[in-house]
Protein 1
Amino acid sequence: MSANDSTVKRQPVLLTVKSVQDLGPRYRRICFTSPELAHYPPCSHGAHIKIMLAHGDQSEPVLPAMTESGPKWASAEDKPLLRTFSVRALRREVGEIDIDFALHGDIGPASRFALAARPGDKLGISPPGGPFPMLKPASQYFLAGDLTALPAIAAMLEDMPADSRGYVALQVPDHTDLQDLVCPEGVKIEWFFGQPNQVQPLIDQFCLQLENDKHHVTDSYFWLGGEEQIVVGLRRYIRRELDVDRSQVYAIPYWRFGNDEDSYHARRHEVIDNKE
Ligand SMILES: Cc1cc2nc3c(=O)[nH]c(=O)nc-3n(C[C@H](O)[C@H](O)[C@H](O)COP(=O)(O)OP(=O)(O)OC[C@H]3O[C@@H](n4cnc5c(N)ncnc54)[C@H](O)[C@@H]3O)c2cc1C
């Protein structure tokens, strides 16, 4: 089925938790199901979505009506809590979608939902966003991120052509968070351990790797996600020191330590729009 298929609906979908699987102490895969997923837009694995979470006394989130000017709720109180996540895997043929949640306690509604999730629980999702494709064709790939970017990175690695070459730097809290990732032989994965504010070893090693591969930089593609410090630190080096064109760099801060997603919204856009 193609993206132009007339049966594809660009509407939010109400999902039901089918199963919950712990992939580590701080990482939980939730498989959701809905017959509506048969008509969900085809998308790259790793694409971003908004999840819609119930609040207060609601037993399930209220989905919006889709209007020409965007989603609309009958009243402001109906509006669910919104958070941004990634499509880890989509199986439209069986009406299933996997979303991987980094668990960071019950201080945020998304993490709280994931910690308590049981089969039968409900959550809404928006249609998928870009980029499409997730990675532009390139001779080498350089990817970096933390637990929140791991779902997108793992999905992109699985979908890479078998002869791809590249380097991936991943920061997780400690060795219990390590995962076996499926990836092409020519892609090296390096893990770093530390809290979100301890990113300098990852940044130094990533830059060293680029220094050694400098002759490939002009036809490489860079993908950076995760806590703001990783994304901004690496983007600065790639853009300023290596003079890589913006079109070759995806750099999206996924979250910022100390800010919830709502309070981070405006700053995130300033960071993204910064041309450095
Ligand atoms: C394009 C995109 C794709 C994303 N994909 C995923 C994904 O697939 N899986 C995923 O887990 N996250 C993903 N994220 C990150 C996720 O949106 C944020 O971590 C979000 O803040 C989580 O919402 P929450 O309700 O749990 O916490 P919030 O209510 O937003 O925040 C509450 C508090 O927790 C802190 N916090 C938020 N996230 C973390 C964290 N990971 N570790 C420690 N403290 C944290 C905040 O700084 C704040 O102090 C993605 C973000 C973007 C922009």
Protein 2
Amino acid sequence: MSYDPGPRFLGSLVLVTGAAHGIGRACVEWFAAEGARVVVADLDIETAREVVEALGGSGQEHLAVEVDVTEDGSVRACVEAASDHLGGIDVLVNVAGGGIPNKDFESTGDDMWARAMELNLMGTVRSIRASLPHLRRSTRHPAIVSVSSVNALVALGGEPYSAAKLGLVSLTRGLAVELGPAGIRVNAVAPGTIRSRVWDNQEGGADRMLPLYPLGRVGEPDDIAGAVTFLASRDASWITGHTLPVDGGLLTGHRQV
Ligand SMILES: NC(=O)c1ccc[n+]([C@@H]2O[C@H](COP(=O)([O-])OP(=O)(O)OC[C@H]3O[C@@H](n4cnc5c(N)ncnc54)[C@H](O)[C@@H]3O)[C@@H](O)[C@H]2O)c1
């Protein structure tokens, strides 16, 4: 039996984008708690530094790096800084992304579509492309996990965002096949409503979505961190190419009306 109950990421080198808030921050905390050294990469560098400080430790393990995933040069510089600090990259987690304030389809112009694609699809494309040379050199079960959305899998409005998130599902599948022979696993999660700051300005907050959820609550960032760390871990060593809904049952169906 090869079951190993010990910390799953002891000595692993992990880069998380969009790591200063919400889901990304929770992922950082879970990886660090299981022994990883983490680079906390975000547009909001001040909060990224606070995240690193809050992790404690000797101050040498983790690093905050500023990145704008919509700029290729910025992503390349971030990945190099991460690899220099950590001495390589074993796990890349693509969290940076978010909704674009568009209204109805007809009044959403090309600029909004381009913004949604740049942030949610191309940001992850750039991060993976820049990280691949390092992941290929990894000897610690290299893995990529990206954060898509249930919006990719069921119509919930916001077409530009939803289409970009569905692009991640396809990217995940394609790269899993391409990178499988190199031993690099590629997976994604599709979160339902997660209580993060993005819901703060909406009337009723995240809880207004509660009736959609068979499990009777909306999600928390930790719900996603649990799934992301599972997919990045040795526990998922024969899982690749999947987008795992983490959705409190949303996609499964509705109670009778
Ligand atoms: N909250 C939800 O209900 C929900 C549901 C499904 C999917 N998601 C996805 O989860 C991810 C995280 O969302 P969240 O709810 O934690 O939101 P959040 O706003 O709390 O976190 C997003 C993080 O990305 C960073 N970021 C934004 N633009 C960036 C850029 N150009 N370059 C680098 N970093 C950038 C932000 O500073 C922030 O730290 C996003 O990809 C989002 O689309 C969220």
